[in-house]
Every structure is written in C-alpha cells, then in structure tokens.
Amino acid sequence: MDAPLNLQNLKNGLSKLTIREQVSHRLAAMVQSGILRIGDELPSERELAATLEVSRETVRGAIQMLAAIGMVEISQGSRTRIARTQGFSANNSVTQPVLSGRSAEEVYQARLMVEIPVIRVAVERIDDDGIARLRRLVEAQRDMVNDHIRFQISDAEFHDCIYHASGNELVGGFLHELFSFGMEYRRHVLLREGSVSLSLDDHIEILDAFERRDPMAAAEAMENHLNRIHQTTLEAMAETRAGRR
C-alpha cells in the first residue's frame, strides 16, 4: 500500500527547495491526498502555471521530475497522465491514524470546529497580496465549470491560501488533510452538472467577505460552503453504496 505523504513535513521542507521542486512536491501531494488520481490527465503547462503562479518552464521541470520517478507519464501529442501514487518517501501523516475509519460526519464536524475559527483569523491577517491571490483563483475558476480536474487543483489552492493566511502552518496542514478526506466522493459530486458552478458561487461569497475584511461574513460563507459539501458528499456516498448492491 502506498504510504501517505506527510503534508506537514512537506511544508516544513519547502523553504529549502527550488521553486521547481516545490511545485513537484505540491503536485505529488495532490496525488497522494486523492485530489489527483491514477489515470487523470494533468492540465496543460500553461493552465498549471497560471493556477500555481509559476512559469511554464518551472511546471515543465516539475513534471519531468515526477516523470523520472514514474509518478506521471508524458506522451508526445497528449496530456500528461498520473501513473502511480508512489515516488516520494514519506512518514505516516499525523492525522492518518485519526482519520482512519472515521465517518464523514465526524470529519465534517472537525472541519467546522477548526476551519471556521481559522477563517476568522485569516480575514484579519491576510495581506493585500493574499486577497489578490484569492481573487485570481476565483476569476480563473469561472473558466473551469466544465473541467473538474482543473477546478479541484484550483479549489485546493484556494483553501490552502486561506489556511496559509491564518499564519499557523500546523493547523493549515491538518486542515489540508481534512479537506482531502472523502475526495473520491467529492470527485463524483463535481461530475454532476452544475456542481462546479455551485462551489464557484461559494468561493465568490467567501472572497467578497475577505475583500470587505469581514470575519463574521467570511465564517458564515465558509460554513454554508462546508454544509453544502457535506450534504452532497453524503448523497454521493449513498449513491455509491446503492450501486454496489
């Protein structure tokens, strides 16, 4: 079984890496957390560069690093595909034993208890560059309503930007792993017509609260977002169970 990537150790080591190495680690983390899965086609170099806000050359180098360890397959004339989840050595995540066997309800309640206070702090601490980053992500997401893989990558960046703005990387790493819980069901939900648009609408409300520097409005918008995600995830889980009967 593939070992999960320790996201906190990853964050602690990023400052020692080149930008190309940081991008390769970010993409690897998305694979090992379930945001990207085996067989998924990566967005184009241009699209990834825009979402991650790095150069196309940096993205190309990062993908080549992942190809060298077999995590992705590069084919001439077609998009790069995720080939396997192995490749980066990692210790067990701090939250892995905690999340193992937990229900969607427990994880949802944990996100409410942790993420809502965090977003209030993030609104107070985020700088103009951080708000501009959120704004660029949301604007780009308007063109992703029919591309759930690109949206999932941008969605993770949107939430990570908020977690980072809180100033607590330990809590941010924990929330990232909670965010990734049940990703297989979230992917199923995002394939439904209109689902990406609903998430985009939520992001627009959250962004609006950040731009107004309104912690209470941001917390309310995030809670509404989490409530909707939880409900649609439960529906997807029920559909999956029904399909196995």
UniProtKB/TrEMBL annotation:
Keywords: DNA-binding, Transcription, Transcription regulation
SUPFAM superfamilies registered for this protein in UniProt: GntR ligand-binding domain-like, Winged helix' DNA-binding domain
MF GO annotations: DNA binding; DNA-binding transcription factor activity
Residues annotated as domain HTH gntR-type: 17-85
Annotated InterPro entries: GntR_C (IPR011711), TF_FadR/GntR_C (IPR008920), Tscrpt_reg_HTH_GntR (IPR000524), WH-like_DNA-bd_sf (IPR036388), WH_DNA-bd_sf (IPR036390)
Alphabetical list of Pfam families matching this protein: FCD, GntR
Segments passing through the bilayer: none
Keyword Transcription regulation: yes
Name used for this protein in its record: FadR family transcriptional regulator
Organism annotation: Devosia oryzisoli
